[in-house]
Design a protein that fits this description.
The complex is a heterodimer of chains A (128) and B (161).
Chain A (H helix, E strand, L loop, with lengths): L3 E6 L3 H13 L4 E7 L2 H10 L4 E4 L8 H8 L10 E5 L4 H10 L3 E4 L4 H12 L4
Chain B lengths: L17 H16 L4 E2 L11 E9 L3 E7 L1 H12 L9 H20 L7 E3 L3 E4 L11 E9 L2 E9 L2
Antiparallel strand pairs in B: 1-6, 2-3, 2-4, 2-5, 3-7, 6-7
Classes of the chains: A alpha/beta (128), B alpha+beta (161).
Chain lengths: 128, 161
């Protein structure tokens, strides 16, 4: 897929780099990658930048990923931007919470690049 | 990844969770570092394990999951995760061991029946240096030792309830 602008939200800089690498391995041509270390930073980042895809952790300081997804839904400028959660919180309850809040996909850590591809490509193609 | 371990009877300790802790750790190293972690047959030599990462667990299970390793091992973990030279890992090795500890904790709790939604994880804390003491309120301590590129890493869970 061509010319994808993405926002990666995770309090671990190592994990942000791994996620970005996995997206490239999935065949995405990333023209711009924004990073944020919590939900509040992510909200600030997308006020000024339009992105095509957001990958977001759940457990983060300041503002967690579930709260971020809820607040994102209230931003007119981010309407329709798909969010895929990437998190260690793998329980069914967390998945339901995330999807109910507006996330389109859910990837459990640890993950493989193939799993990222499997979850992200359908979301970008508008199938989920 | 889908193996589910049951809660031990209240009359026993938590030793039955050690294989789950081992599997949870091995999966994280295999998937995120591309490394097949092997159990150490030797008792752990703790000298030189000057990097400690901790993730707190709260809820149905209260406790702390701890990963201990040398700074050299931490740099090699960061190297494998990021595809960089170990000598260039720098501060990213702290982040790497913290994130590995976080993933092991999450993977572990997701394998224990009823813990997934019933137990919260803290963000990881990483301590450098070996000259410290922790006063624990733990009732039970589970510990397992692996060899990572020939050097020991110790995973433990202190269970508070």
């Amino acid at each position: 897929m061509e010319n994808i602008r993405t926002l990666i939200v995770d309090d671990s800089s190592v994990m942000r780099k791994i996620v970005e690498r996995s997206l490239r391995q999935a065949g995405l041509n990333l023209t711009e990658t924004l990073e944020a270390s919590n939900g509040a930073e992510a909200l600030a980042a997308i006020k000024d930048h339009k992105v095509d895809l957001i990958l977001c952790d759940i457990n983060m300081p300041v503002m967690d990923g579930l709260e971020f997804v809820k607040q994102l839904a209230t931003l007119e400028s981010a309407k329709g931007t798909p969010v895929v959660m990437i998190t260690t919180e793998g329980s069914e309850g967390h998945v339901v919470q995330a999807l109910s809040a507006g996330a389109r996909g859910y990837i459990r850590k640890p993950f493989t690049p193939d799993q990222v591809k499997e979850h992200v490509l359908p979301v970008l193609a508008g199938n989920l | 990844m889908n193996q589910i371990t049951t809660w031990p009877p209240s009359s026993t300790g938590h030793e039955c969770w050690i294989p789950t802790l081992q599997l949870s750790t091995q999966e994280v190293f295999q998937l995120m570092l591309g490394y097949s972690l092997e159990l150490s047959a030797e008792p752990p030599l703790e000298d030189g394990l000057d990097m400690t990462s901790m993730v707190g667990l709260a809820g149905r299970l209260c406790g702390v999951l701890t990963l201990r390793c040398s700074a050299k091992s931490a740099a090699r973990m960061a190297s494998r995760m990021l595809g960089i030279d170990p000598e260039k890992a720098g501060p990213e090795m702290w982040d790497a061991v913290g994130e590995i500890c976080n993933m092991v904790a999450g993977n572990f709790k997701n394998k224990i029946s009823g813990l997934g939604d019933g137990c919260m994880l803290s963000v990881p804390t990483v301590i450098t240096g070996a000259d410290y003491n922790i006063r624990s309120m733990a009732n039970d301590v589970l510990q397992t030792t692996f060899l990572f590129e020939g050097e020991p890493i110790i995973l433990s869970i202190e269970v508070h309830n």
